[in-house]
Known about the structure:
239 residues; alpha/beta; Rossmann fold; 2 domains; three-stranded antiparallel beta sheet; 8 helices; 26% strand; globular; binds adenosine-5'-triphosphate; ABC_transporter-like_CS; membrane; nucleotide-binding; P-loop_NTPase
Amino acid sequence: MSGEALISLAQAGVDFGAVRALRDVTLQINRGERVALVGANGSGKTTLLRLLHGLVAGHGRREVHALEDTDGRPALMAMLFQRPYLLHLSARSNLLLALWLAKVPRAQRGERAAQALERVGLQGVGERAARALSGGQQQRLAMARAWAMRPDILFLDEPTASLDPSAKREVESLIDAFGADGMTLVMSTHNLGQVKRLATRVLYLEAGHVVVDLPVERFFHDPLPHAAAQFLKGELPWT
Ligand SMILES: Nc1ncnc2c1ncn2[C@@H]1O[C@H](COP(=O)(O)OP(=O)(O)OP(=O)(O)O)[C@@H](O)[C@H]1O
């Protein structure tokens, strides 16, 4: 149900040796939200994505909630990285392999892979080598692979940072469409225009701490703490 809690963190943190990458994070990701994580380099955005996904061990409490409309199944998650990790196989075989790893029955894999390629507009290149596709196509293939898993939550770590403007637009419009389909999105980005276009809620991180957590329109209009305001004005490094 829209608005129900999917993941909660309470007093959560992550240390890498002596580096305190995240500290004292208490928040909830709710169904249907599109959350943007912003902040300077090293502020902890990627670590927060990884902690929410469960890819990194932290301290404090992390809870993945049972969904109301699925007999108590916990939310399914997928992650998209800045540079997609694709194997030296055809685009279609990359999808088939992911479906096999996800234990999708063999009889369904072909159809699911074809649907996923079509969903991202790559139906014409299924037999081409994945790594020979353009950067934008590779990212769309990674999105198809995530979509094929039918995740409730998609985490995206700077998904358009290494793309040219036209590929960026294509990937952005797919992210937007996934959100419109009801997928909950949590995305780190250095692109404030993208935040305006895609997000409903913004978390601003500073030195591993979530300093601002606001609906997107308030983030761009409310008075913010000093460093966050400087960041918005482009006076802090964020490229
Ligand atoms: N595997 C790791 N081992 C040691 N330190 C790490 C590791 N991953 C991240 N860090 C440190 O944790 C802090 C937060 O890093 P993180 O990558 O989460 O920041 P970020 O906001 O995503 O940065 P960027 O915008 O540059 O991607 C940084 O000081 C970083 O150097």
